[in-house]
Amino acid sequence: MNEQSPSGRLGGASLVPWLTLLLLLMMGLYTYMDRPLMTLLTEDMRRALGMSDFQIGLVQGLSFALLAALASYPIAWAADRLDRRWVIAGSLFVWAVAIFLCAIAGSFTELFLASALVGVGEAGLLPITYALIPELFTGQARVLANSLVILFGRVGSGAVFAIVGVLAANAHSAQQWLPDSLASLDPWRTALILLAIPGPFLALAALGLPIRRRPLEVEDQRSGHKAPIISYLRVHWPAYGSFALGIGLLVFAMTSLMSFLPVAAMRQMGASQIYVANAMSLATIVGMGLAFVLVLGISALLKRRSPGREPIILLLVASGGCLLIAPFILLTSTPLQLFIALGGVFLCFSIGAMSFPNGLQELTPVDGRARLISIVIMGNFGMTALAQPIAGLLSDALDKSGGKLLVASIAVAATALVLSVISLAFCARRYAACVKAVQS
C-alpha cells in the first residue's frame, strides 16, 4: 500500500497528531475507570443489592463485554460513514449516562442493564483510535504511535487503579457537594456519580478534535473490489483460528484473575480498598514496564535465531509463564504475597499483549486485515464476558458464603491457560508458512 501522505493527512512531524492521539488515549482511559472502580466497590454493591458472586460476574463480565462486542461493529460502521467526532462524543456521553444509571440502580436487574449500556459506550473508542492512527502518522511514526497505544493503555490502567482507589475511599467526603437528592446515597453510589460527571464535558471536547470528518478511502475500496476474507479463511483457518483461540483463552484467564483476586484479597485476607488499589496499580505499572523491556530484548534475540516467528514464540512464553505462576497464588496467605504473584502473572500476560498486535498483523492480509482483527477482538470481548460469570458460579458452588473465590478464580484461569498453550503451540507449527503465504 502506498505510504505517501494523502491530501489532508496531518504531518508526522507536527505536534498536532501527537496531541490528538494523547487526547484520544486519555478519553479511552477515562472510560476504562468503571471496571477497576466497580471491582473495588464489589463488596459494597453485593451487600446493598444482595447479589451472589455469579451475579457479580454477570454484571462485571457478561453484560459489559457481550454488549460491547455486539456494539463494536455497528459503531465502527457509523465511524466509517459519519462524522467521527460525533461518534466519539456520543460514545462518551452514553458511557457517562450509563455510569450514572449504575449508581442509582436499585436491583441486580437494573445494575445488569446499566452495566451493559456502559459496554456500548466504551466499545467504539479503541477501534476508532486504531483506525485514525494511519491518517495521523506515516512510516516509523505510525509504528511508534501503535506501540504507545499499548504502553499507555497498560501503564495508564495501573494509574487508574490508584485514582479510583482515592475516589472510592473519599466518596463520602464529596457528598456535601452533591444536590440534596443525591447527598444521602451510599458512598459507593456517590463514587460512581463522581466518575460520571466529567463525561459530558469530554464529549464536548471530542467535537473539537482536529481529525477528518470521515476516514480516508482504503486502497481496496478505490479499486472497487472486496477483500478476499473468505478465500483467506478457507486456506489459513487453522493458523488464524488457533491464534485467535489461544489469545482469547489467555484473555479469559486474565479476566478471571484480575477481576476476582482483588476481591479475594479484600474478602478473604482483609485488605482495604486503598491497599488493593495501590497494589494493583504498582503490579500493573511494573509488570508492563518490565514486559516492554523484555519484549524488545527477546524479539531482537529471536529475530536472529528464529526470524519470522517472534510474535508466536513470545505469545507461547506469555501463556506458559502465566500457567506456571498462577497455581502458586493458592499458596499465598497475605495480600502482599498475593499481589507479588499476581504481578508476575501480569508481567507474562503483558509480554503477550505487546506481541499480539504484531503477530495478528503479520498473519492477516492487508486488504482484509481490519475486519479479520475485529473478529478476534470481538472474540476477546466474548471471552471477557464468560470468564467472570463462570468463576463466580464455581465460587458459589464451592462455598455460598464466597470463601472459595480465590480457589475458583485460579481453577478457571489455569484451565484456560492450559488450553491457550495447546492452541498457540498448534498455531506455531503453521504460523511461519501462513505469514509467508500472506506476504507473498
Could you walk me through the main structural features you see in this protein, from its secondary elements to its overall organization?
The protein has helices spanning 15-32, 34-40, 42-49, 53-81, 84-103, 108-122, 125-136, 139-170, 180-183, 187-196, 198-206, 219-222, 229-269, 273-305, 310-325, 335-363, 369-398, 405-439. The protein is mostly helical. The chain folds into 2 domains: 13-214, Growth Hormone, Chain: A, CATH 1.20.1250; 228-440, MFS general substrate transporter like domains (Growth Hormone, Chain: A, Up-down Bundle), CATH 1.20.1250.
What is the CATH first-level class name of the largest domain? Mainly Alpha
Can you give the mean pLDDT?
80
How many H/I helices?
18
| N-to-C order of helices and strands | HHHHHHHHHHHHHHHHHH
The CATH topology name of the largest domain reads Growth Hormone, Chain: A
Secondary-structure content class: mainly alpha
Number of strands: 0
CATH architecture of the largest domain: Up-down Bundle
- Report how far the terminal alpha carbons are from each other: 14 Å
Helix/strand layout:
Blueprint lengths: L14 H18 L1 H7 L1 H8 L3 H29 L2 H20 L4 H15 L2 H12 L2 H32 L9 H4 L3 H10 L1 H9 L12 H4 L6 H41 L3 H33 L4 H16 L9 H29 L5 H30 L6 H35 L1
Helix pairs in contact: 1-7, 1-8, 4-6, 4-17, 5-6, 5-10, 5-11, 8-14, 13-16, 13-17, 13-18, 14-16, 15-16, 15-18, 17-18
Name some characteristics of this structure:
single chain, 440 residues, mainly alpha, Growth Hormone, Chain: A, 2 domains, 18 helices, 0% strand, globular
